[in-house]
Structures are given as C-alpha cells and as structure tokens.
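User: Before I run my own analysis I want an independent prediction to cross-check against. Here's the chain; please return only the structure tokens and, at the end, one sentence I can use as a sanity check.
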Amino acid sequence: MSYQTKLVKIKKTNNIKKLLNEETIKFGAELLRKGELVAFPTETVYGLGADARREDAVKKIFEAKGRPQDNPLIVHISIDYNLESLLYSRPSTLAMKLIDSFWPGPMTLIFKKNNIIPDITTAGHATVALRMPSHPVAQALIMAAGIPIAAPSANSSGYPSPTRAIHVYNDLNKRIPYIIDAGSSQVGVESTVIDISGEEPLILRPGGITREEIKKRSGLELDTKIKLNEGEAPLAPGMKYRHYSPDTKLKIIDINDKDSYQEYYHKNAVIVLTDESANKILNEDNLKIVKMGSIYNMKQIAHNIFDILRRLDKVDIDIILVEKLPEKGLGEAIMNRLHKASS
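Assistant: Structure tokens:
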C-alpha cells in the first residue's frame, strides 16, 4: 500500500496532560486504533508503531520495514497501562525490582505472555518483550490510543536506526501514513533487553541502560547472551541479523594500530574518530575525518553515531572506518551496534 506520508512537528514538553490535548497526538492515536502505522519519537530512537494485539496491524510493520517475520517486536506500554493484562502470570520479584528501578526508560523486559498478544508480534515465541518509554510524546501517544503498541525502530530493516524524524521520512516515505517529529532522540541507541522469562536473567541486547547502572541501582549482576546457537530463534531484536548498517562498507579500526587503517590513507575513505583521537592525528595524516564525540562522554557518542553513519552513507565514499571504543558503560552498546553494522 502506498501512502501520502505526513510529517508533523510537535513541540516537546514534559507535560503529558498538555500533550494529550494536542491534535497531532489525537490524530496519531486514532490511526493506531484503526490499525494503521504511526512513527513516533522515543528517548532511544524513533519507533514505528501499530496495535500490538492486531495481526493485520502488526503485519504492516513487517511490510513497511521489509523486516523478517522471525524477528520479534518490542511492545510499548504507557505508565497507566495494566501490565498484568498481557502476561501469563504476575511479575516476579526480580521483574518488579527492574521495573521499579528503570521504568519508564530505555529497558525492555521479556516476560511469558498470555494470548492477547498474537504470535506475529512475538515471532511465535511464548514470550513478549515489553517496554515503558520515558519520552513524553511516546507516553502521550500510547496513553491516548489506550492500547499496547508494537514498535521496532522506524527504519528500513537492517539500516542504521533513526534518531531524527527526517531519517524516518527518508526510509519510509509513502510506506506509512504519519510521522510525529519531536526533534532528535536523546539516547541514540536502542533499549537494553533483558530476558526474565527463564531461570536466570540475561542481557540479550546491551542498550541505553548499562550493566553498571543495573548493578548500581538494582544490585543485579547480569550475564549476557547476544549470540545465537545454530538454528536458535531470536527472543529479542538485534540478535540474529546484520543490523544498523549503512550501504557503504563499514570497518572497525584500532586507532593505536596504524596497520589496521594505513592502507586507506590515499583512498576514498572517511574515518570516524573520538575528539581526542582526531586531535592527535589531524595534522599528522592525510585523512578525511569526522568526529563522533569525546571518549569521556559516551552519551554524546551514542547520541551521534547513527546520524553520522546515515550522513556518510549519502557521501560518495568507498568505506567508513570507525574507531574501536572501550566496551564499558554505553561503549558496550555502541560497539554492539558497530559490530553488527560491520558484519
């Protein structure tokens, strides 16, 4: 189906009650209740939303994105939604500890589901990935619609995630009816996904909440499982497929190992560096350099990285070289995305 896509700006405010009276929100909520798609801002990236309970609505997400149907979706709920109405059983003590510590916010939790959420939303799993976004526009939209919203990133499947409404428009123009523009996403990488449906909680995707924050605020030290065994189906987005990737070839380099990038000095390449590394080699080597932010401010780098990859993908270059970052704090999530993008 082809649409005349509307991109409508809305002024961001933390006053959800005020947002609920905005015509932009009311119209988006009406579309969602009718089974249509709406792209909207969250604190992590822009999401492409549909009624998570309706197979026909969720199917449109896969069609618009070109997304494989064995890749499950994250379901977003509002702060006033009855969480237990979607679950097989009451949330565990562990679940409530994480919910109390991190919701609303960039953390997705995987629970055993009941039959309200259809198999298409969960890729046939008996579990559902749930998140309560903290972005006030997202909260107002979900609240106004009064339904759980399935919402993967609002991009063409496999491409860098959208952190601005124009990214959504560039990818999905004529494929979806409505985009709500509230400026750039604050976090810039997707939510942290934690599977709490089994005996031991596991991080399935590092994201906007770091393992260090989880330990500090909840006391939990979690193991990680981001790779699948052969033939295993992904429980969470970002586990199975090449993700977050520009069309231009991308390679991760060690800035301290010149042999890893010296061959590109006189080729049609761009190197993406931390501010500190760029300042060291700017006058030393003949390289086209883009700065991604300070090594001491991973929040800034996370905020910038997808936008940088998208901008460079529009430039006539042969390869994008990106500096390897320490895999601590938000660096773990950023490097997870870059490894997927370069695979």
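Sanity check: The first strand starts at residue 6 and ends at 9.
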